[in-house]
Write a structure and sequence with these properties.
Helices cover about 25% and strands about 25% of the residues. It has about 170 residues and is an alpha/beta fold. Bound molecules: flavin-adenine dinucleotide (FAD). Flavin-adenine dinucleotide (FAD) binds near residues 20, 21, 122 and 141. This is FAD-dependent oxidoreductase. Keywords: FAD, Flavoprotein, Oxidoreductase.
């Protein structure tokens, strides 16, 4: 397994996940440490997803994919953070390394990257497999695919009987 890491005398900060937490962490580390560190961020997506805004789009009959994503490559470049688009596999704490598979194309090789400091910002996971009946009857608005699926269910299908009334309010 090839290792991307080429030590240049600077501690290597590896950030796993590039949405709200990971992106902010990478930017903050750069702001606080300046040129004293190298920073790498890995995420399977190359965009920030404004998850909290997805419901507002869905219930207003808009596809959230048209409004709620911001490319992160230019943001990371500005902070001199190396970006790797990949599916993260495993963390080896003893070896201080992370395995990942670049995911732009299928069939890519597993690679390894070592770190001096690790930031884990991988969010959470859906539990369709753990909630009985949820896949069949449930909906979520926590990602673009399922948000758009719910929008189509609500607005494009005419099977709802009786028809439902939609009201969405933002707030904490
Ligand atoms: C409908 C809804 C409304 C919300 N509203 C609010 C709100 O009003 N205010 C608020 O504070 N919070 C809100 N939240 C919660 C908020 O969205 C989360 O707290 C926030 O997204 C967490 O950010 P994060 O960066 O920790 O994780 P995430 O946003 O989940 O990001 C995790 C990142 O890790 C990447 N990743 C995960 N696993 C892998 C892997 N194996 N390989 C590669 N990449 C991986 C993902 O691609 C993703 O980019 C809301 C959530 C939902 C669902």
């Amino acid at each position: 397994m090839p290792d991307h890491d080429t030590h240049q005398g600077q501690p290597h900060i590896l950030v796993l996940g590039g949405n709200f937490a990971g992106l902010a962490a990478a930017q903050d580390v750069r702001r606080l440490c300046g040129d004293a560190v190298r920073i790498t961020l890995i995420d399977r997506r190359d965009y920030l997803l404004f998850i909290p805004n997805i419901p507002a789009d869905v219930f207003a009959n808009r596809n959230p994919a048209d409004h709620q994503i911001v490319p992160i490559r230019p943001i990371l470049k500005k902070s001199d953070v190396t970006f790797i688009q990949a599916e993260i596999g495993a963390i080896d704490v003893d070896a201080k390394s992370v395995t990942f598979v670049p995911n732009e194309r299928s069939g890519e090789e597993t690679e390894t990257l070592t770190y001096d400091y690790l930031v884990i910002a991988l969010g959470n996971r859906l539990s369709f497999d753990r909630i009985e009946g949820f896949a069949e009857y449930g909906h979520t608005v926590s990602d673009l695919y399922h948000g758009e699926k719910l929008r189509k269910y609500l607005y494009l299908l005419t099977h709802l009987d009786p028809p439902i009334s939609l009201r969405y309010e933002t707030g904490t």
